[in-house]
Each structure stands twice: as structure tokens, then as C-alpha cells.
Amino acid sequence: MNKRYRLGEIEEAVSEMEELIDTPDDIAEIDDDFQIVVSGWSVYVESLNLTLRQGVACIWDIEAGLFMPDFDVTIVYEGNIETQEWLYYEQDGMAVTLGNWLNGRLSCE
Q1: Torsion of CA 89, 93, 97, 100, to 10 degrees
Q2: Is residue 107 part of a domain?
Q3: Residue 108 belongs to a domain
Q4: How would residue 9 be classed by pLDDT, with cut points 50, 70 and 90?
């Protein structure tokens, strides 16, 4: 499904899209003690050729013997997420994460 939104409005719009509830999640990063579980849906910013996904950073809990949620993250990918590794992630919303990642990469002109 492709729809156009302003970046500042996208998080609220996505949270109201019931059709995304059943979209399976993916794992973006794994090591022995840390993984990021990302949403199966994504937001493509065409003018920047970047894709954003939201997720949860999980830490290995020795006592429970499984990964437990720790904090929410937004992940930035270049272009098509099917073929790319993530570029950056941050514990913040889409607009702030994108702004921080772009800081110094684009001129203001």
C-alpha cells in the first residue's frame, strides 16, 4: 500500500492503520546480547531515497533465557530495505531520528 504523508504526521497515521497490525516483524540486528526487532512495514522518503522502520531494541535476559524489550527505536535504511543493511538507529521518533542522521549530510540551501 502506497500513500503520501508529511513526515511529521506519519507516525500518527501509521498507528491508526489497522491493516498493518498483522504485518510480520523482522529482526534487523542480532548478536549474543542484543537484537532489534523491526516492524514489517516501512516508510519510504522518496526525496532522500531513505526508508524508515520502527522497532524495539531487545537485551538478552539470562534469567529468562530470552530477549526482552528494552527501548523503542527508529532505523534508517538507504533505498530498498530488502537489499540494504541499516545505516543508523536511534531511540526516538521518525522525524527526530531522520533529522539527526541527516545533520551535516545535506546543505540547508
Answers
A1: -140
A2: no
A3: no
A4: confident
